[in-house]
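Reviewer 2 asked us to include a model.

Predict the structure of this chain.
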Amino acid sequence: MSAAKGKAAEAPAAAISRVQALAYRVVAQQLDRPGVDDPADLAIADLGIQDSPAGTAALSVAARTAVPSGGEDPATQLADGRRWVVTWAVRGAPHVLRADDVRAMAAATWPADADDAAARLAGFGAGTRKRGDDALAALRAAADALREVVGDTMTKGDVSNAVTKAVPKLSQPCRSCGTTHISDQLMRLAVLPAGLRLDPMASPVTLRPIARWPGVPDEQEGAGAIVEAYLRLHGPATPKEVAAYLQTGQAAVKDVWPGGLAEVTVDGRRAWVPENALEALRRAPAPELVRLLPRSDPWLMARDRELLVPGAAHRKALWPTLGFPGGLLVDGEIAGTWRTKATAARLDVTVQPFRRLSPTVRTALEAEAQRVASVRAVPDVRVAYDGG
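Predicted model (structure tokens):
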């Protein structure tokens, strides 16, 4: 299927600058704080809000909302287990999903075939391919076993032991713990289709069933809506970028590539955005804002990192091999990184700017740090600057 499906042949591709594309994303991801009081109304929830480490989803909500006068902080509403479900979703990463969306997300992220499953299963999938086995069958067996084993609340370790015992063929040697058990990525990708959720208040990691779960999906359904949501939130984008976000191959994405898209060029690079977003892309206002984005914020999850952060040294600082920091967003640009250390009494925020920050930006940054401390229920905050 052509990536240009839905584009009128006679319509020339609109030329969009990098600055325009980023200005559009600020609005599409509601980082301009348009007055949303309910996090369920945030567009980023359409893909789930990544929550790694735990608590960062609330910070992503805080970056897009303000505390209403006399009202409940939207960032704290994610703790309502009746309206929100924390589970392993896209790429096996923990996400906070609207409770009404979990079934659709399970079906939309279910692999289309064995090749799609192998790609999503990363190292385990590569080993499955090498052995000539069916990765989709392995995922289904894991999901069926999880559904059978977890009848009540269980720790991840107990679940892993039970599934390993029930389906030994899903096991592989683990260097870190010196035992043989179900692949961690296989287990993570099987949890949502098995109808399981994470208990965000429990330690160690604990799983429990989602009520009234209809069963493991029979087949993929609604994957095009996930692609469309990515293009709307992170566009203009390409099939390659969407595939990288979903941790699959481009063929799987092109097979569900939606219609109703407009082709554009971003500084000469072909990309796509929903047609109904094209005017917003063209007319996106220049953003004027300062936000402290947590390490797994949707803004930082886009897969066109060279567009987000043109400088190689800055990309290395923002996305190191281990221990990602958060990103300092000034207007439409990542202007630095930030990290925290917390005690019961104070949150220390250390900012490493990529350039000199004006007094106005510093004042706004310190107000954002207060917002972060409030979400984390720490009474005091101190901001320090490492350069800049």
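The first strand starts at residue 14 and ends at 16. The chain has three domains: 14-100+220-282, 111-194, 290-385. We have added this to the supplementary material.
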